[in-house]
Amino acid sequence: MIPSNKTELIFEIQKHFASLWKDLENFPKEFSDRKELEGQVKNTKVSVNNLISYLIGWGELILKWNKNFKNPEKLELINGFLSKYRKESLI
Q: How many domains does the chain contain in total?
């Protein structure tokens, strides 16, 4: 489902976060660095730790966008974000 308003967006975020959180709680910590998940780039693998870092990074960027929405010159565009965090990125 693609949310069409703020309420739906919040609902979808909470629903998917709850599902992810449940999966992560049951995931053995000793496997968290194993790169076995399908990456976003073809023929790449990522670890659970990579995935969590990626999601945190996107979350922080979206919060910055929301905070600076009325001041566009302060918005960090995706290209700047990716060049700054390329090494840590899953892309």
A: 1
Per-residue pLDDT tens digits for 8-61: 999 999 999 999 999 999 999 999 999 999 988 889 999 999 999 888 888 888
Output phi, psi for 85, to 5 deg: -120, 25
C-alpha to C-alpha distance for 82 and 90, rounded to whole angstroms: 10
pTM: 0.67
Q: How far apart are CA 82 and CA 27, in angstroms?
A: 28
Contacts of range 73-77, beta carbons closer than 8 Å, 24 or more positions apart: none
Domain that includes residue 59, residue range: 33-91
User: Whose CA is closest to 90, among 46, 48, 28, 58?
Assistant: 46
Could you tell me if 3 and 9 are in contact, meaning their C-beta atoms sit under 8 angstroms apart? yes
